[in-house]
Amino acid sequence: MPATVVTRLPILRALLAQLLALLVVWLLLLGLVGVLGVRPGLILVAVAQGCLAALIGARLGLSAWWLAINLMFVPGLALLRDFDVPGWLPLGAFTLLLLLNWNAFTERVPLYLTGREAERQLRNRLSELPAGFRYIDLGSGLAGTLSRLARDFPAAQFIGVETAPLTFALSWLRCLPRRNCHIRLLSLWRVDLAEYDVVYCFLSPAPMAALWNKAHAEMRPGALLISNSFAVPGVEPVEVQQLNDWRRSRLLIWYPGGATPDGVDTSG
């Protein structure tokens, strides 16, 4: 597999860290048993492997939540060995996590849910637009906010794009009763942003620079790019709305295509 693919996909870097840690721990065990006659317990070996996997993952540039997974994965399996847990349960739990968080494993975008305060601020901002606006949520998750906004603005069109299979299925069913709300099984990188008046995202720091380049190239003058919490490196937002939530998050707003409604050029 090309090195560029391993670099781009964090799940492959995490797997590489696990395998390297297993190899190092196995070689150390051979040395301890062969030279000193010492046989460490399973839990101690598993914890050592987890710590080493987390350290290697950090060197490979994995984010903090991936390091936690690397740290706990093998020790967790070792602990489950002491309980009467069906063999399919850990695999089923991992599969469910994978189906819900596919973007986190492939594009470093975990499943974040828009809070009610952010939703309220979004509703206020959208109320300032002409009635028939087009809105897209890049990585719409479970589509709770998207569905409620579609209910509140029946003349507008709301689109969500999602690639996590189970998340897509659940959000598609959720939006099915609303004629102005649709969920597409589609990567955000394949969306033509020129079609939309508002582009909303709640992603992670990792894709924001590339998303800005895409938005700057495709979005129309006056169209809004709204990011929940995560900034575009080196590009100051035109508007910042503080949210009084437990995350102390913000809505960051840009006009990547150029002019604001007042005619000010903000394209940079």
UniProtKB/TrEMBL annotation:
InterPro entries: FAM173A/B (IPR026170), SAM-dependent_MTases_sf (IPR029063)
Classification via CDD domains: AdoMet_MTases (cd02440)
Chain ranges passing through the membrane: 15-36, 43-68, 88-106
One MF annotation (Gene Ontology) recorded for this entry: protein-lysine N-methyltransferase activity
SUPFAM superfamilies according to UniProt: S-adenosyl-L-methionine-dependent methyltransferases
Keywords: Membrane, Methyltransferase, S-adenosyl-L-methionine, Transferase, Transmembrane, Transmembrane helix
Gene3D superfamilies the record matches: Vaccinia Virus protein VP39
Domain of life assignment: Bacteria
Transmembrane helix listed as a keyword: yes
GO term, biological process aspect, one: methylation
Protein name (database record): Class I SAM-dependent methyltransferase
